[in-house]
Known about the structure:
There is one protein chain. Helix 2 (about 10-35) crosses helix 4, helix 4 (about 45-70) runs antiparallel to helix 5 (about 75-95) and helix 5 (about 75-95) packs antiparallel against helix 7. By secondary structure, this protein is mostly helical. The chain has one domain (about 1-135). It is elongated, with a radius of gyration of 16 Å. About 85% of the residues lie in helices and about 0% in strands. The protein has helices at about 1-5, 10-35, 40-45, 45-70, 75-95, 105-110, 115-135.
Amino acid sequence: MKEFWTHPMVETAGYFSVVVLCLVVSMAVFEIVTKYKNWQEIKNGNVAVALATGGKILGVCNIFRYSISEHSSLLEMLGWGLFGFTLLIFAYILFEFFTPKFNVDEEIANDNRSVGFISFTISLGLSFVIGASIGA
Length: 136
């Protein structure tokens, strides 16, 4: 039975399932953190929200990619992935703090695609930094 649980296909399915669940939870947390309703805005065609949300999704998945490749147990992978996700939320809050001339959430809610793209880039770019440090 041990061979079954260590088979690469079973391990892949396990990691996939856990990461999808973490992604759903992380998107729910981002829904709470942002002032706009992500999925309603995307449904309404708000490209800035789609960019910002896409960056968050890619960022979270990238962090978990590093966590999977660097840690041998599911529990370690989950712990480091969630820690990385927490740092990504912190980065989003810092983005708002470091732009005092305008409100990031308001600009994204108003479909300011430039701000949405920068949000996308920050989420994805920092996910590489966070991921690299997870493996260190």
